Amino acid sequence: MSNFESKPEIKHGPAEKPGASAKPQSGDNRRGAIAGLIIAAVILGIGLWLARDLTAASKMQDCLMSGRTNCNVIEPAR
């Protein structure tokens, strides 16, 4: 008696190929990759926007905590 179990053999019909049903369509694979790329780009954009916004808020809080009253950002005239 051995410790190894034998795996049952899968028999395919004459019209079926062994790897035909397991192979994904190339269009589906590409579509999923493009969707993943778009989702990653959106998350990156949101992350950059959030980092910029939090940095500006942090600078404003630092200015206010130092006791200044004129902490508004003055943009130069163009």
Provide a descriptive summary of the structure in words.
- This protein has one helix at residues 26-65.
- The model has no long low-confidence stretch (mean pLDDT 79).
- It has 78 residues and is an all-alpha fold.
Uncertain residue ranges: none
In terms of DSSP E residues, the strand content is under 5%
Give the CA-based shape: elongated
Mean pLDDT: 79
Alpha-carbon Rg, integer: 30 Å
Give the helix/strand layout:
Layout: H1 26-65
In short, what is this structure?
The chain has one helix and no strands. The protein has 78 residues and is mostly helical. The mean pLDDT is 79.
Quick tags:
single chain, 78 residues, mainly alpha, 1 helix
